[in-house]
Amino acid sequence: MSTKEEYDCIVIGAGVQGSFTAYQLAKNNQKTLLLEQFVLPHTRGSSHGQTRIIRKAYEQDFYTHMMEECYELWAQLEREASVKLYRQTGLLVMGPENSQSYQLFKSTLQRNKVPMVTLTRDNFSQHIPHVNLAEGDGAVVDITAGILYADRALKTVQGQFQKLGGIIRDKEKVMDIKPGPIVTVSSSAGVYQAKSVVITAGPWANKLLTHTDLQLPLEVVKINVCYWKEKVPGSYNVKQRFPCFLLTEGEESKEHIYGLPSNEYPGLVKICYHMGSKTDPDQRDKQTDRSDIDILQRYISRCLPGLLPEPAVVESCMYTLTPDRHFVLDHHPSYSNIVIGAGFSGHGFKFGPIIGKLLCELSLGQVPSYDLSPFRIRRFQAKTKSAL
Ligand SMILES: Cc1cc2nc3c(=O)[nH]c(=O)nc-3n(C[C@H](O)[C@H](O)[C@H](O)COP(=O)(O)OP(=O)(O)OC[C@H]3O[C@@H](n4cnc5c(N)ncnc54)[C@H](O)[C@@H]3O)c2cc1C
């Protein structure tokens, strides 16, 4: 504990959000330290795995608006690092035609003039083979959507951050944060000081925020990441132009079910349930509930006849949910030089570049590029020891 290095900013947590924030800070000539508790890369948070869906299809305009710029930022990173991070596949959105959620998806796409196609019951199977569209369901395709290569994206942005002079220290768990005009951060290996700190600790956010007398209404759930085997290899393959898909609600459940074409594991299609069971992030594998897998099995038997309704591979990941499923992007209510990015509620990966930009703006005291009112802490009337 002999070091006491000084930085402009310390970012805690090297998942997708912390890595993009650190990169943006370094781009803005800030001397930046990115601290990560595990050896990188790791599979214990929320950002690991090979793929994520990127889409403009949302129920709320503010996400669709942010995604406009976000696509450009992903492309910019691809160019800077000469690497491919995005593959366009389209996103098929299905749901009960008369339901509020399906209609919101559809109208947001239309209102924002996102390139899209509406499928009819008659032409559905011609465009989307091997999928049964449920009675009463509508279907639209967000043409702009696709796959992000997640692990590769993380490696790329961390590499670009280092090229800009940023410092990553992994296997260094932050044990304490002492707020003040200069914030002191103690890790398992050193003591650091900075003008500002950004907390992007994913499922561990509340554990870290304890040191600053703040608790947010976050719930951490374990997601069973399931891969399903094709009966005929290639039927749902990305090369056959099978799209990503999202079912807003169905016979089996009110929560979303989403999937990606077979790609990373040959012959296996990733299909997940957009909810899981509560867990402590340090005890993730003790959560063994499989009721989500039962729901997926029933759905796959009913609507995806080309897949064996038994998962071939099950991996683990975590969501950090807020009550309204919108992110937290804000200053700490008591300490303006502590910035928080949390509660990405299972849909934050695609926003990484724009979240990085926004958290960087907040930590530099700049006016954020977007209206952050949906993401402010005050919406929770959070229970804090110090009054909000
Ligand atoms: C199965 C699954 C599918 C998903 N699909 C999509 C999708 O298709 N599209 C999409 O946009 N989003 C998707 N998401 C959501 C997206 O992946 C997350 O919103 C995003 O990864 C959250 O990133 P994060 O940086 O906040 O958290 P994390 O990736 O968990 O990063 C937090 C980091 O902080 C570190 N940390 C914590 N405490 C400390 C400490 N004390 N000291 C040092 N380091 C610490 C952790 O080790 C971790 O590395 C999915 C998520 C899951 C789980």
UniProtKB/TrEMBL annotation:
Domain FAD dependent oxidoreductase positions: 8-362
Cited Gene3D superfamilies: D-Amino Acid Oxidase, subunit A, domain 2 (3.30.9.10), FAD/NAD(P)-binding domain (3.50.50.60)
Keywords: FAD, Flavoprotein, Oxidoreductase
Keyword Glycosyltransferase appears in the UniProt entry: no
Keyword Amino-acid biosynthesis attached: no
One cellular-component annotation, GO: peroxisome
Reaction catalyzed: sarcosine + O2 + H2O = formaldehyde + glycine + H2O2; L-pipecolate + O2 = L-1-piperideine-6-carboxylate + H2O2 + H(+)
EC identifiers of the protein: 1.5.3.1, 1.5.3.7
Single biological process term from Gene Ontology: L-lysine catabolic process to acetyl-CoA via L-pipecolate
Function, as annotated: Metabolizes sarcosine, L-pipecolic acid and L-proline.
Name of the protein: Peroxisomal sarcosine oxidase
Organism: Lates calcarifer
Native organism taxonomy: Eukaryota, Metazoa, Chordata, Craniata, Vertebrata
